[in-house]
Amino acid sequence: MITYTGGSFDLFHIGHLELLEACRDLAGIEGRVVVSLNTDAFIETYKGKPPVQPYTVRAEMLWACRYVDMVVANVGGADSRVAIDVVHPDVLVIGDDWLDPGRDERRYHAQLGVDPDWLKARGLNIVYVPRTRGTSTSDIRELIAARGFDYEEQPSGYRIENGRVVRT
């Protein structure tokens, strides 16, 4: 079984880890977990600000995760059909925070750029796993800002080199 999930995975945290572990549990030992990683350009367009970590660093973090077998670029941006068609997954996996009250899936369908007919034609189902409450990249950003660190500015003594933060 091939499980597919997607996202920005900026400031990798326990919620990300638990989502990927759920993907692994669904895929099984012989299955594959594929992560479609949003590009920097898409994140900036969608969220109105760039990611803290560039694509290369976020991809490297995901590749290092024992639950992940493959990382692909979400080159379609708001249209995830491109990446989904490349991967040919058996199931799409996402946190249940994407379900609206009443378990309405339309918000997540819109996020992916798909509709029920498109999913049905490919034999795809969406599995919603429990979201880890109390942690998110937005929460981490707010905490860092509250403590007086502006994540958009590089601290003195550091620079970005080849997509990594290094000491000067």
Structural description of this entry:
The chain is α/β, with parallel strands linked by helices. The chain has one domain (2-134): 3-Layer(aba) Sandwich (Rossmann fold), CATH 3.40.50.620. The protein contains seven helices and seven strands; from the N terminus they run βαβααβαβααβαββ. The protein has helices at 14-27, 40-47, 55-64, 81-87, 106-112, 116-121, 137-146, and strands spanning 2-7, 32-38, 70-74, 91-95, 125-129, 158-161, 164-167. A hairpin with a 2-residue loop joins strand 6 and strand 7. The longest helix has 14 residues, at 14-27. The chain is globular. It starts with a strand and ends with a strand.
